[in-house]
Amino acid sequence: MRHSLHLTFMCLSLLTGRMCIQGNQFNIKASRSDKLSLPGFENLTAGYNKFLRPNFGGEPVQIALTLDIASISSISESNMDYTATIYLRQRWTDQRLVFEGNKSFTLDARLVEFLWVPDTYIVESKKSFLHEVTVGNRLIRLFSNGTVLYALRITTTVACNMDLSKYPMDTQTCKLQLESWGYDGNDVEFSWLRGNDSVRGLENLRLAQYTIQQYFTLATRSQQETGNYTRLVLQFELQRNVLYFILETYVPSTFLVVLSWVSFWISLDSVPARTCIGEGKGSGRSQHH
């Protein structure tokens, strides 16, 4: 009996050890398969270092940008900011990613972790986030000449200094500025791909309180303690709609004032009537505010 139990224990030990070895081999294969391997050019990224920019030590990387403004959801005078959802597209050339043929490949967005990408950020942004439903809203596309297209869908809240001295007949100028966080002008140069035509969507926006009068793009330099950086600027003017405030503010206020005059034609002895008018004015003011 003891001999049988001993043999059974030895067999289980050998079987468990074999399963562990096979599991380790499977994990090794899985970890190897995690490396960037593209059909038709498996050796494309051999020796590729994602921590070094293209043409490291040489000429700066030329990055061309385009913007699609999907929406401007809110403009706050109290916080002096606006919230917008944008599609940011960046293009640059990485000679390490050149391959034969004339095709382009759209890759799974998670493969962006294996490639060098610019560290672009939104200047004066209070908070921003990348949309993640149903997956991270990113696109990475490779072209045979080494051009990389990197697209993102971002919602951001950006500061906008406003002059409210002429409220509600004012016009505000807001900006959306893009810049590299760590690479100065010796490493990265930003430019608009097609000038003013690089920005789309603003002309189609319909806002309740504002009308977008005009917008334009420009490229400037930002001198900071850590270096001289290229900064791309989208500047747009917002003219407040006076009709909106006439209907939302002035007309209700006028009706409340006219209603208050009715009390002068009511007899002093009609206390209930005067009380009802006073309560009506009070509730009207509270609902208006």
Automatic annotation (TrEMBL):
One of its GO terms (cellular component) is chloride channel complex. Pfam families: Neur_chan_LBD (PF02931), Neur_chan_memb (PF02932). Keywords: Cell membrane, Chloride, Chloride channel, Disulfide bond, Glycoprotein, Ion channel, Ion transport, Membrane, Receptor, Signal, Transmembrane, Transmembrane helix, Transport. It is found in: Apical cell membrane. GO terms for molecular function: GABA-A receptor activity; GABA-gated chloride ion channel activity. Its main location: membrane. Residues 249-277 form the Neurotransmitter-gated ion-channel transmembrane domain. Residues 1-23 form the signal peptide. The keyword Acyltransferase does not apply. The keyword Oxidoreductase does not apply. It catalyses: chloride(in) = chloride(out). It is a multi-pass membrane protein. Residues 42-241 form the Neurotransmitter-gated ion-channel ligand-binding domain. Pi subunit of the heteropentameric ligand-gated chloride channel gated by gamma-aminobutyric acid (GABA). GABA-gated chloride channels, also named GABA(A) receptors (GABAAR), consist of five subunits arranged around a central pore and contain GABA active binding site(s) located at the alpha and beta subunit interfaces. When activated by GABA, GABAARs selectively allow the flow of chloride anions across the cell membrane down their electrochemical gradient. Pi-containing GABAARs are mostly located in peripheral tissues. Heteropentamer, formed by a combination of alpha (GABRA1-6), beta (GABRB1-3), gamma (GABRG1-3), delta (GABRD), epsilon (GABRE), rho (GABRR1-3), pi (GABRP) and theta (GABRQ) chains, each subunit exhibiting distinct physiological and pharmacological properties. NCBIfam families: LIC (TIGR00860). PANTHER family: NEUROTRANSMITTER GATED ION CHANNEL. Belongs to the ligand-gated ion channel (TC 1.A.9) family. Gamma-aminobutyric acid receptor (TC 1.A.9.5) subfamily. GABRP sub-subfamily. This is Gamma-aminobutyric acid receptor subunit pi. It comes from Neophocaena asiaeorientalis asiaeorientalis. The gene is GABRP.
